[in-house]
Write a structure and sequence with these properties.
single chain, 52% strand, alpha+beta, 11-stranded antiparallel beta sheet, 232 residues
Length: 232
């Protein structure tokens, strides 16, 4: 029995070793990252929901339903403080997709990368790099760390700093696959605004990618007519 148990253990260990992906040179990973990121498709249209929680100078607990086509956005607030709204609040506007991975992911030529390690991050094999911008700016968004998924060679996490006016923050953005696309799933920011601590957490879910959205999606809803009393 002892020999049989030892033999089974050896088989399992051998299978695990065989299944383990081969680690690549860190520069080869960066080359693949650049190529895969450049070829990554962008959804023509998408529908998703997100929940946002802010604490600090402003306290917010909201859930939104978003319809996006290019820069056109329909933003429906569907719950506040955990309570569904009987009448949703709808806004129509134009805005770039601020968390799109191709917009935020650091690129060779703009950033330098220092390889730190390869290993498990949240249960996934990944390559971890410090990201160092060649031109430092006193304001704006700067990636400080890049974590590349070893299976797809896409960024599974970006650590960043952000400076705007009197607000100074740092945080992280997590990405994951949804069909053919690579989308944000969680954003966490800790900041100081006018010297006061603040935090923000955003979670994204329920992604769908229709071929297109009708133009009526991006028309502001008409207000209900005012009731009038009949004349006597």
């Amino acid at each position: 029995m002892k020999l049989r148990a030892a033999f089974c253990a050896a088989l399992i260990a051998g299978a695990l070793v065989a299944a383990a992906p081969k680690l690549l040179d860190s520069q080869v990973v960066l080359q693949r990252y650049e190529l895969v990121l450049a070829a990554l498709p962008t959804p023509k249209a998408m529908i998703f929901s997100y929940s946002v929680s802010q604490a600090g100078p402003t306290n917010i607990e909201q859930r939104h339903l978003i319809y996006r086509s290019g820069t056109r956005v329909r933003d429906e607030t569907i719950a506040v403080d955990g309570i569904p709204l009987s009448r949703k609040i709808t806004r129509i506007y134009r805005r770039v997709d601020r968390y799109a991975v191709r917009r935020l992911a650091p690129r060779p030529g703009v950033y330098g990368f220092v390889f730190l390690r390869a290993g498990k991050v949240d249960g996934h094999l990944a390559y971890v790099y410090d990201a160092i911008p060649y031109v430092k700016s006193a304001v704006g968004f700067t990636v400080t760390r890049l974590i590349i998924d070893a299976k797809t060679y896409l960024p599974m996490r970006l650590d960043f700093t952000s400076v705007s006016g009197t607000a100074l923050g740092n945080g992280e953005i997590d990405y994951a696959p949804f069909g053919a696309y690579w989308m944000p799933v969680f954003v966490s920011v800790n900041a100081h605004v006018d010297g006061r601590p603040a935090r923000e957490r955003i979670s994204f879910e329920d992604y769908s990618f229709p071929p297109s959205l009708p133009d009526s999606t991006f028309r502001a809803p008409h207000p209900l007519p005012h009731p009038t009393l009949p004349a006597f």
